[in-house]
Amino acid sequence: MSVDTARNFMRAADVYGKKGTFLLLPAAALYELAVPSTPERVRQEVEAHATKSETVTAAEIKRLKAEPPADAQKGRAGGYRAA
Question: What is the pTM of this model?
């Protein structure tokens, strides 16, 4: 295992280690979500979908991070799928 991979695991465990629901997300999605620069609004949105057993990919998290906050846009449609 590389040092970067180990850091990704540790960061994800620090942020989500006590929330069993997030073990259902792909590792890359957990890593992307656990990055310290991830806005809280993105974490909350992904957590809401994950608790409904919806799969969220790392690419979807990156897209959410790139979007302006929800209060700055109206009528955005989500692109999640049930697991």
Answer: 0.69
